[in-house]
């Protein structure tokens, strides 16, 4: 597996008020921030991330998350303070890509969260699904790996 790893700091507001563990909303934020880093989205007040996939899109397209599934496997408490988010693409289609993610802290080998998201590329001019070209495909396929194994849902 060739995953992109991003280390992110926990913030006090990432914790659930009554439980003291990282909240489900914070996990989504952490994955979203890591996703911005790989795609090269400019954060508010910040510079564009160097080498992001959006550099290859050359403002021809953008991406949207069409579906996202997160599986919470164990609690993470404030003691972790810094978490690692790993991202990879188990599937690159013609107009969409499946992005997998996991979040781990330094004290645990197993991830606390695993996730999978279907991302669709959309043309900036017409808002329709955009065909992934070879340049973008090559960049996405650098971060390949297996689909995460998620529990069966009813």
Core attributes:
154 residues; alpha+beta; Thiol Ester Dehydrase, Chain A; five-stranded antiparallel beta sheet; 3 helices
Count of separate DSSP helical elements: 3
CATH-defined superfamily: Hotdog Thioesterase
Largest β sheet strand count, sense and barrel closure: 5 strands, antiparallel
Rg from alpha-carbon coordinates: 16 Å
The helix content, as a percent range, equals 10-25%
Domain tally: 1
Order of helices and strands: EHHEEEEH
Structure report:
The chain has 154 residues and is of the alpha+beta class. The protein has a single domain, classed as Hotdog Thioesterase (Thiol Ester Dehydrase, Chain A). It is 18% helix and 32% strand. It is built from three helices and five strands; from the N terminus they run E-H-H-E-E-E-E-H. Strands 1-3-4-5-2 form a five-stranded antiparallel sheet. The longest helix is centred in the N-terminal third of the chain and has 16 residues, at 24-39. It is globular and about 45 Å long. The mean pLDDT is 86.
Task: Please sum up the structure shown.
By secondary structure, the chain is an alpha+beta fold. It has three helices and five strands.
Task: Set down the secondary structure blueprint.
Elements: E1 4-9, H1 24-39, H2 54-57, E2 61-72, E3 82-92, E4 96-105, E5 113-123, H3 134-141
Antiparallel strand pairs: 1-3, 2-5, 3-4, 4-5
């Amino acid at each position: 597996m060739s995953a992109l790893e991003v280390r992110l700091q926990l913030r006090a507001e990432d914790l659930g008020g009554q439980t003291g563990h990282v909240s489900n909303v914070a996990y989504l934020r952490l994955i979203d921030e890591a996703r911005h880093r790989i795609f090269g989205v400019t954060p508010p007040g910040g510079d564009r991330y160097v080498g992001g996939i959006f550099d290859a899109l050359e403002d021809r397209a953008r991406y949207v998350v069409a579906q996202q599934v997160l599986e919470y496997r164990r609690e993470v408490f404030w003691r972790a303070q810094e978490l690692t988010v790993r991202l990879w693409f188990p599937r690159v289609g013609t107009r969409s890509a499946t992005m997998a993610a996991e979040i781990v802290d330094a004290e645990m080998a197993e991830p606390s969260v695993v996730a999978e998201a279907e991302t669709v590329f959309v043309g900036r001019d017409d808002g329709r699904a955009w065909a992934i070209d070879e340049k973008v495909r090559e960049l996405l396929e650098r971060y390949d790996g297996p689909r995460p194994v998620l529990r069966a849902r009813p």
